[in-house]
From TrEMBL:
InterPro entries on file: G1P_thy_trans_l (IPR005908), Hexapep_transf_CS (IPR018357), NTP_transferase_dom (IPR005835), Nucleotide-diphossugar_trans (IPR029044)
Occurrences of domain Nucleotidyl transferase (ranges): 5-240
Name used for this protein in its record: Glucose-1-phosphate thymidylyltransferase
Keywords: Transferase
Length: 362
């Protein structure tokens, strides 16, 4: 048996990341200056997947524009809208039944970032002749996740969704494997949870209680569910740390006074002007302008952004943002076309146009 098909998530509203995600699909937010979903696609491709099906919100067009038909990765990518509103991540798979048919498949929540490849995970599923499989990771607090249940002998016997008193500190990550037809047979036998959604742990619970073989494997290294801003920043740091030196070329122009240490990528058309200090790891995309500023470590700056007179650390700056003020910016997400600028008029104070759920610490 080979796993050639995968479902990746591209929908949802990502309300915990408002206001950034009011104008951009969460899965297109940059991690290491690459759309988040690109990392998931590459992981799937590296694991042997040749066909990917991505669910989208109704009317979505941006994902399709950025990702295309899969030719960039040498595979096929198709899209399907999730109908009937949000009904849980198990319902996403049900909506893809016509694409999956009777084939085994990988289901990958694209906002999960993992280090290492999924090939070993897929191979263990195949070699172990399992009917389904889950990936686990240790967390400090498992109450926000699906959680496995083991008996006294260490055998997996059940899975729970967001238990208030978790039986252990393992979280079920957003990486799932299913054998032929099993998921859709199980889906017919589960009900909505208390929050009104079809849950993935309900699928696994059904399979376990009906004596199907459900394997599990702990993710080594690290795994991150990027549900909140601090999670995004953490994932960005981890990705930057694990990138090789060869992934940090300099294609821009540097003033002789600029001081650069560590791994720093400068994109084509970007200009690093006078009195700029950059402490890597840092990625600066195309057509950016930096003057009289101190950047890094752990900063990614998207295309067309301008940074002047500021100190920026551990932050993600999106396309065409402008930071032009003698300020220190840390642990921040700065959205597309956002402006952080100095007020030159009296009275001395701060003028702001702030969207819903914006967070500012001053």
């Amino acid at each position: 048996m080979k796993i050639k098909k995968a479902i990746l998530t591209g929908g949802g509203r990502a309300t915990r990341l408002y206001p950034i995600t009011t104008t951009i699909n969460k899965h297109l937010l940059p991690l290491a200056n690459k759309p988040m979903i690109f990392h998931a696609i590459q992981k799937a491709v590296d694991a042997g997947i040749t066909e990917i099906f991505i669910n989208t919100n109704p009317g979505e067009t941006e994902l399709q524009k950025h990702i295309g038909d899969g030719g960039h990765w040498g595979i096929k990518i198709k899209y399907f809208e999730q109908t009937g509103g949000p009904q849980g991540i198990a319902h996403v798979v049900k909506e893809a039944e016509k694409f999956i048919g009777n084939d085994p498949f990988l289901y990958y929540l694209s906002d999960n970032v993992v280090l290492g490849n999924l090939k070993e995970y897929v191979e263990e599923f195949i070699q172990g002749r399992h009917d389904a499989m889950i990936a686990l990771s240790k967390v400090d607090d498992a109450r926000s996740f699906g959680v496995p249940v083991f008996d006294d002998a260490g055998k997996l016997v059940d899975t729970l969704e967001k238990p208030q008193n978790p039986p252990n500190n393992f979280a079920i990550t957003g990486i799932y494997l299913f054998g032929p037809k099993l998921f859709f047979d199980a889906f017919k036998n589960i009900e909505r949870s208390a929050r009104g959604e079809y849950e993935i742990p309900s699928i696994y619970s059904y399979l376990l209680k009906n004596n199907y073989s459900v394997g599990y494997k702990e993710i080594t290294g690290w795994w991150k569910d990027t549900g909140k801003a601090e999670d995004l920043l953490h994932a960005s740091r981890l990705l930057l740390d694990n990138m090789s030196d060869s992934e940090f070329p300099n294609h821009g122009s540097l003033d002789s006074s600029a001081k650069i240490t560590g791994k720093v990528h400068v994109g084509t058309g970007s200009r690093i002007g006078q009195n700029v200090v950059i402490d890597g790891p840092v990625i600066i995309a195309e057509n950016c302008l930096l003057e009289d500023c101190h950047i890094g470590p752990y900063v990614t700056i998207a295309a067309g952004a301008e940074i002047k007179h500021a100190r920026i650390m551990n932050s993600i700056i999106l396309d065409n943002a402008l930071v032009d003020a003698p300020m220190t910016v840390i642990d921040s997400l700065v959205g597309k076309n956002a402006q952080l600028i100095k007020r030159n008029k009296e009275p001395n104070g701060h003028r702001m146009i702030i969207g819903d759920k914006t967070i500012i610490e001053m």
